[in-house]
Amino acid sequence: MAEEINPPSEDQLVSPIPGLSNRLVQMGTARKFSEGDVILDENMRIRAIPVVTKGSVRVIRRDEDGRELLLYNIRSGESCIMSLLGGLHNDTSKVVAVAEEDTDVLFIPIDQVSALIRENPEWLNYIFRLYHKRFEELLEVVNAVAFKKVDERLLDFIKKKCAMTNSRTLLVTHDQLAHELGTARVVVSRLLKRMEEEGIVNLGRNKITLV
To answer: Alpha-carbon distance 203 to 187, whole Å?
Structure first.
């Protein structure tokens, strides 16, 4: 359950927009989310743009059968470009944003975002940089789904998550991996067992360690 918290100070806001941190803090509403909380759901009307100030968020797409596909992660100092574009066009959300850990988010009202774009070139540059980064990440997803086998995607995912946490051990269940990759749990379990036999990973209870 999300709770409203005191906004971060200008120093605490990890912002790639020099000179705008204080204004963002003043106009935004800060909320804290626990791991697993849904920050933005599909078909939700977008009234504010989330800027992550602490923690991380995963953005996923779900199909009619409930299967999930990870699109990208949002880290501290970043925002969700899909939410931003949808809000500017008075559209509903086409994705789901979920807190990967205890996460603080600063919500900027969508009407204030429009004013920032008009008045501050730094904010517009920030949006373009985010758009470029997310576009490259989405291309990686398309490339993986279209051209890579599931075992390659699984190993790439494990390596990427370990790099994000600066650890060789990933705390995750087989169900969670299956959801992230849009495949079946039995497939993930079989591939992990084969990776362990090949000496690529060590498996424990809800954890995977890269060898």
So the answer is: 15
